[in-house]
Structures are given as C-alpha cells and as structure tokens.
Design goal:
It contains eight helices and eight strands. By secondary structure, the protein is an alpha+beta fold. Among the domains are: 98 residues, Tetrahydropterin Synthase, Chain A, CATH 3.30.479; 60 residues. Strands 3-2-5 form a three-stranded antiparallel beta sheet, with no helix packed on it. It has a three-stranded antiparallel beta sheet with strand order 6-7-8. The chain has a two-stranded antiparallel ribbon with strand order 1-4. Helix 2 crosses helix 4.
C-alpha cells in the first residue's frame, strides 16, 4: 500500500513527523496522516525506563565482586535526545529502524559501571558487601552532576543494587560464615548488655528503696521525737493549768473542802443516778475537823 497512512502516538510517547527534511508535526501523543515513501517518524518514550545491569569489578584488596541492579531514567527533553540518537521507526510495524535505542541502553550501563568502579576500587571487599545503599547514593550523586546526560535531555531518577556479592562462590561462603559468626557474637553481646543493664537497673531500684527506707525511718524517728516533745509539753501545760485551777482551794480546810464537795454533788444531783456512801466514808466525813 503506497497511499496515505495514519499514525497515532501513545499519550506517553513523544513523536516527530518529518517530510522532505522538514518537521511537519511533533509532540506528545500526536497523530498524523503521512505518505510512507517520503515521511520519517521518530518516537521517544517519556515514561521511566528501567535498565538492568550486571558486571564485575575489583576491590582495593584485589577481590572480584559482582554487582547487579538497575538504573531508572527518564527522557525530559526528547528534542535534545533526537539530535544525537536516531529513534526512527517503521510506523506500520512500530519497530525501530536503527540500533540507537540499544546504544542508549549500553551508554547508561557503562556510565553506571564507570561511576561504580570509582567507589569499588577504593574499598575493601568485606565492608563493600554491606555498602549497597550508600554505593547507590554515591553513584546517583555522580549522575546528578553528569552534564553529558543533561545535554541529551536525560535525568536519572533512581538507582539500586539488588546484589553485591563476591564473584568467587567459595569466598562468598567463607564470608557468609564469618558474617554469621559476627552476627551471633553481636547477638550474644547485646544479650549480655541487656542482662547487665537489667541487673544494674535492679540494683539501682534496690538502692533507691534502701535510701527511701532510711529516709522514712529518719522521718519516723523525728516524728516520734516531736510527738514525745509535744506530749511532754501538753502534760506540763495541763499540770500548770491544774495547779492554777486548784490554787483557790489551797486556803480551805479539809472540812470546808468536804462541804464544798458535798455541795457540788447536790448541785449535780439530777445527773447522778446512783450514789453509794458507805459507813466508813460517812464516819470519815463526820470525823473531819474544821
């Protein structure tokens, strides 16, 4: 079919239609009727692209290490990218007409490897095995300042290492065993520290209880002393009050005191239910001399 054809890009695709060397239409999700024999269509995906990588590097102690992961990037300026790479496609089959997409993938993988090598070759193998997150951050910092990628409209959004392991399986097993022993040792140390901390806390609690008991006993002693002093003062006050109360009666004779007592009994007779006066008491009263 050599007649006009219709092309429609996806909403997440940037397309550029060129006829006779002139750009006729470009943009996101565009559509265009075109003549196949004189039209070129280029297409760039603007979604996040995940490019996996898997390579080996050598550490500062001459040990080979295998690194696996992925770099995720996005084309933010398709126009810049199309000035360097050929992303032309067959609009009918939608298959690329060049290998430039693969070349871009290889370029991203090589950049990851280059930035990774700078860090790996300066580190010992053992600490590197637990350095994946920090390594990813360091490599992302390098990408952030990469002007060559900015010049082709690419921004790296994320990067991670899913595996950082020795290339030699026997070495990996030996390090794994050593790491396991270290972890068990750390676990034992942590358990010992927890027990020691618990004992120290228990000792501190007991010491605090003893101090509190001593303080309470001291306070109790002071309280008892104060109570005794108060009781003595109260008794002394009562004695003095009684003395003052009895002073008026010191000038009375026994007979007068007896008569006064009988008078008080008579005055309060209504409050007395029973009164027993024995013969001995009556005889003693009659014998009182004035």
């Amino acid at each position: 079919m050599k007649g006009p054809r219709y092309f429609k890009a996806e909403p997440t695709e940037y397309a550029r239609v060129t006829t006779g060397g002139k750009v006729r239409k470009e943009g996101l999700g565009i559509s265009k009727v075109y003549l196949p024999f004189r039209t070129s269509i280029e297409r760039v995906s603007i979604t996040d692209t995940a490019t996996p990588f898997n390579f080996q590097e050598v550490t500062i102690d001459n040990q080979k290490v295998s690194l696996q992961g992925a770099v995720i990037y996005k084309v933010e300026d398709p126009g810049k990218l199309l000035r360097v790479y050929n992303f032309a496609l067959d609009p009918y089959t939608r298959e690329p007409l060049s290998d430039d997409e693969s070349l871009l993938t290889e370029r991203m993988q090589q950049k990851v490897r280059g930035y990774t090598r700078r860090v790996v070759e300066a580190m010992m193998l053992e600490p590197l095995l637990t350095f994946a997150d920090q390594l990813a951050s360091r490599v992302q910092e390098s990408f952030a300042s990469d002007e060559s990628l900015k010049n082709i409209g690419i921004r790296v959004g994320d990067l991670f290492y899913s595996a950082v392991v020795p290339s030699d399986p026997k070495l990996a097993q030996a390090l794994e065993a050593g790491l396991r022993e270290k972890l068990l040792l750390r676990q034992d140390e942590a358990q010992y520290e927890r027990r020691a901390s618990a004992v120290a806390k228990e000792r501190a609690i007991k010491e605090a209880e003893v101090r509190n008991s001593i303080e309470l006993e001291q306070q109790r002693k002071e309280l008892i002393g104060l109570e005794g002093t108060n009781l003595l003062a109260e008794a002394e006050n009562e004695r003095k009050a009684l003395e003052e109360k009895l002073k008026p009666y010191q000038a009375f004779s026994p007979a007068q005191l007896t008569a006064l007592g009988m008078l008080r009994i008579g005055e309060n007779a209504q409050n007395i239910e029973n009164l027993s006066i024995t013969s001995e008491m009556l005889a003693a009263l009659l014998q009182v001399k004035s």
